[in-house]
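The freezer alarm interrupted the setup, so I double-checked each line after restarting. Inputs confirmed:
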Amino acid sequence: MQKTALFVLAVLFSCIIRIAVPVVESRTLPEECEDLDDPALSGQYEISFFEYGHKEDQDARTTDISPYFNSPQSYVRFVRRIHMDSVPLHGVGYIPKGKGPFPLVLIVHGNHSPRELSYPGYDYLTSHLATHGMIAVSIEEDFLNGSVSGEMDARAIVLLRHLQLFREWNQDQSHQLYGRVNMASIGLAGHSRGGEAVGAAWFFNTHKHDPYDELHDFNFTLRSLFAIAPVDGQISPKGSVHITLEDVDYFIMHGSHDGDVDDFQGMQMYDRALPVNRPGSGEKGMLFVQGANHSQWNEVWAQGDDPRAVQSDIALITAADQQQVGLNFITAWFAWTLQEHSCYRLMASGELLFNSFPQAVVANRQYQAGERLFIDHYEEDSNKNSASLTDGINNGVGLAEWFDDELIPGKTHAVFTAWDTEGAYYRVDLPPEVLDGADEFDMLAFRVGQIYEPEDVFNVYGQAQDFLVRLVVDGTETEALPILQYRPLVSPARVRVCSAAGCLFRSSDVSKTIQDTVRIPLEDFNPSQQIRPAEIEAVIFEFAQSPSGFIAIDEIQFTKQ
Amino acid sequence: MRLPIFTFIAVCVMISVTAAGEDVSEQAVLTSYDVSLVNLDKEISRVIHGKPSSITQAYLVRLHGRFPAMGARLMQLYIGNELIEEYGGMPSGIYFMVYDPEYLQALSGKPFGYCMGKGPIRFLGKVFSPETFQPFAVQSEFSALSK
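Predicted 3D structure, all chains:
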């Protein structure tokens, strides 16, 4: 109680002490990317409004999801008069003008009161995506909303039934969409429970596919998923199914001030995606926005509040700024993964940010390329001395703390290192010959973040951390490069979620350790001479830029630019 | 000077009392429950004991009370250690259907509980005893769930 009261007083009387870390452009952009358009700008296409399945639609369709879920909110059953054996396939969005074919993006909302329709809340996204040459539709699943449980599979099935419609229309000469939908380039986006639903739809797309059952004739080419503040695990509350995404690109976005999914459980789906022990089969990225909440991603929900208020010295960002961030990244992500505008990958990888990104907003970014060779991912055992790369050796010298452990939020293990003396370092010695044949890789990358500390012990709240990285190449140490040159390691946001009685009476600390991905071209270690991975004998992390610090490092790897 | 001091003391007492309680927004309160038989508006199919079955009637269990706000996070409902995976909302609380009489019997005598996320299962103060509602009233879904 005393701590809570003191914290409240500190918040009441303190000024904002966050240091807005400037956006760092880590390196010179490739020549072909120098004229890249800001994704927040409208695209070149004129667009037309498109709605189907509404009351005036003569061809409105319904679908039976009662085998999956038959316990709707009574408002849905008896006021909206929707029965689970005939739920509407209703979508609203925009189509670019032109012959096409255009990639298709479906966006689905999450759980909310069914008395307030949620699906209109993504108009700002669908209209914008359409100007960039994508058919973008927000689909209705308000009939699955309420005080409900066990409906997650139905949410996914409805998504797939909508895709069946688009496949049909694309082949129907009498339909306006005939030949205009690129069914080989489909993206799904979802918010909140809808965020897990897109992963579940990916799973059912193959696992429930039956070409002889018209209700389950799926097997669509789902190329890319985008999850906004998703939940994880509701597809199987008993825990028997954990969706592990593979062969698909995946992006997740979340906010520090999320007063609903305050545990960032979606990070578990992210960490499971594209497993480290299998060849890379897709790309994934993560954006954690300091000051963003749960509701403001949806224009309808934004008019209210999250179920629980949060308390932080970082102000809640405005709905306009939050939606601008969302629009920025969802456009860039789908432009890259569905339209092969590869330069937009630089936004996901943290190497590029446009001026339209709200300048005062601080965000953590992670990115995992499909092609990678892991040195250390810390998943194979609990021996802190053994690297993931066979015969590699990890060693910590002069460290105040050094251990491998699970990193939360998420589903990954990392190495935790703390220092408070000069000369401390963490070194990974690479085995000889293992990297022969790895010449295709020209970049060192890893995830790293400041450990959240309720009180300053090793880190200083509000200050970015920094340290050096150098390589040992053919027995010679290279130049040491500061991490700050590539990614600012921002201080974790201190956030408490409050009870319904208010922040004054009870709150819980929901602050998190969030990592960023640092990507360093090997040429930066020695501009005068090309470095091949086979020549690298060790990677050294030297903690010499600040008097103390406590960080978690994960997924040290060679990858490609 | 006394008034501000008394106000401060009162606030401290309120803080100490409330801090001992739970987060109200995530609290479930079960006031009462009942069990009846409902004639389903439409036949549905379910797998019972490994066999696909067509169901026209089901046991309806209604829980009256206050439950966490509708949002992303899931309130997991338990009877004993058995998770009730599917339930829906109604004006006075939540409900779930049981299609297999053996399952209904298996749940008998076990306490209602709930949890949010990975938290512990919290007892809702009542034990599930369907036999106390026998002979079960038979009603339509509309009668049972619309009020």
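Quick read of the result. Chain B has one domain: 23-145.
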